[in-house]
Amino acid sequence: MMVSGVLLIADAGLTLAWQEPISAYLAGRDQSALKSQFAKLQAKKVRKHRSQLKGDAIAKIELPTINKTAYVVEGTDTGDLRKGPGHYADTPLPGERGTVAIAGHRTTYGAPFRHIDSLHKGDRITIAMPDGTFVYRVYRTRIVDDSSLWVKRRLRFNQLILSACHPLHSAAQRIVVFARFVRRGKPEVRRA
Description:
Elements: H1 2-17, H2 21-39, H3 43-48, E1 57-63, E2 68-74, H4 78-83, E3 86-87, E4 99-103, E5 124-129, E6 132-145, E7 159-166, E8 173-185
Parallel strand pairs: 2-3, 4-7
Antiparallel strand pairs: 1-2, 1-5, 3-4, 5-6, 6-8, 7-8
């Protein structure tokens, strides 16, 4: 019983200080598989048949300010978000008009958005898709209720929102980072 107690305390300590270790291992394995999947992805399939890609890699997101790169899956169900950040299916894809929305965990499953509270106005967010790279700049961060669907509404300009539970270790609210579309670049070279 003492060993079990020590392991439970160690797990709790790691979760508070870093992230939940077992789900982190599983997410790391899934991210590796998504990287291979993304390398083989065809632009036409993503743009025209994305409903068939539920749970599959559709993009790579880079958050250089917080030193985070992750592969984004289509969908935001529990199983989708266990693999990595998930694109809300009811929003446009990067490169399309409107508000692109991506959700991610902060303490479990690789915690891809653990430090999005460290993103500030002017910070760059890059999303690589098979047909281009899309650059956004953060213009604000807000804490909202978990039912605040207004964050996904379309504005006069194209934007990206990143959302995650807030505060850490709680699902009471959401932290939402708003970023304005800046420019489109060439597709990155992808290797399996």
